[in-house]
């Protein structure tokens, strides 16, 4: 392969991943016209149309998708091989890219990153915060962080946090007016504050479990919010019942502005895990990061 072929393929990949010539050109630091010319030259050389262009979007054709399936793992392996060369340096270096949820970023990752960045100044950390699941291979991330029960079976998972618990909470004034639910089914008679998952776009279904029985509840209410702090404010203001991570409501529970309900239906479950493909070549920088995050029960 000629060197210019590799450059052209890299530019095609950037356009396909950004779904935009403008965004890809900005990312690559070149002009949009030069990028468009490069992709057309690649298409001419291959004798195939790789991208479908409209006034609003850019998407790969079937041939483009096949080329992407070949390019992504090949370029990922090159990146990993280059990263492994950093072990020849006196100090570990490289970049670790992680996709994670907002809650995990704030409660688990940031405290560890704060210490890690001071200990290893030549290792760069990039966090991408998403509420939905992300394809870490397609996104060229080193790893993702999600709750243990949400992990794919073909991933290596490393536990990085304790068990967690979801809890149903409401303001005392709300329960005085509407009563307390005794079972999850009683929520149908209550106003509930829903959470919209920002990335996935759907409404989160409340999950309960008791004596081996699992329930996923679609609840109704006047408010749908996409930020947990706002949901807690709404619950304190007596707009209904909220369903949140236990540690997010610590202050409100302590002050008495919120109280728990359905506690026997909210058992703890597996906490956060860092996960990555089993076939991934682990760089020295990433290996150090894994060990810094690994959960060690006291």
Automatic annotation (TrEMBL):
User: Which GO terms label this protein's molecular function in UniProt?
Assistant: DNA-binding transcription factor activity; sequence-specific DNA binding
Q: Which PROSITE patterns match?
A: HTH_LYSR
Q: Pfam families annotated for this entry?
A: HTH_1, LysR_substrate
Q: Which UniProt keywords apply?
A: DNA-binding, Transcription, Transcription regulation
Q: Which GO terms describe its biological process?
A: DNA-templated transcription
Name used for this protein in its record: DNA-binding transcriptional LysR family regulator
- Coiled coil segments of this chain: none
To which protein family does this belong?
Answer: Belongs to the LysR transcriptional regulatory family.
Domain (HTH lysR-type) ranges: 4-61
- So which domain of life are we looking at? Bacteria
Q: Which Gene3D superfamilies match?
A: 3.40.190.290, Winged helix-like DNA-binding domain superfamily/Winged helix DNA-binding domain
């Amino acid at each position: 392969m000629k060197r210019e072929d590799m450059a052209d393929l890299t530019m095609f990949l950037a356009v396909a991943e950004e779904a935009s010539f403008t965004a890809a050109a900005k990312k690559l630091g070149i002009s949009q016209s030069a990028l468009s010319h490069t992709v057309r030259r690649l298409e001419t050389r291959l004798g195939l149309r790789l991208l479908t262009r409209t006034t609003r979007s850019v998407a790969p054709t079937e041939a483009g998708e096949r080329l992407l399936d070949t390019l992504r793992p090949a370029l990922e392996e090159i990146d990993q091989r280059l990263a492994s060369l950093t072990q020849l340096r006196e100090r570990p270096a490289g970049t670790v890219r992680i996709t994670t949820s907002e809650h995990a970023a704030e409660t688990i990752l940031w405290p560890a990153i704060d210490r890690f960045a001071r200990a290893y100044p030549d290792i760069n950390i990039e966090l991408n915060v998403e509420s939905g699941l992300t394809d870490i291979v397609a996104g060229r991330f080193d790893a993702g962080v999600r709750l243990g029960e949400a992990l794919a079976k073909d991933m290596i998972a490393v536990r990085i946090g304790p068990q967690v618990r979801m809890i149903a909470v409401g303001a005392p004034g709300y329960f005085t007016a509407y009563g307390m639910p005794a079972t999850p089914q009683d929520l149908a008679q209550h106003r509930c504050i829903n959470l919209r998952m920002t990335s996935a776009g759907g409404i989160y279904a409340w999950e309960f479990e008791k004596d081996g029985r699992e329930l996923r509840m679609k609840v109704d209410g006047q408010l749908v919010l996409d930020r947990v702090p706002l949901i807690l404010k709404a619950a304190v203001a007596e707009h209904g019942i909220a369903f949140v991570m236990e540690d997010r409501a610590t202050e409100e529970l302590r002050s008495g502005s919120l109280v728990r309900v359905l506690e026997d239906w909210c058992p703890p479950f597996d906490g956060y895990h860092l996960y990555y493909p089993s076939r991934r070549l682990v760089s020295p920088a990433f290996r150090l990061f894994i060990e810094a995050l690994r959960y060690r029960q006291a």
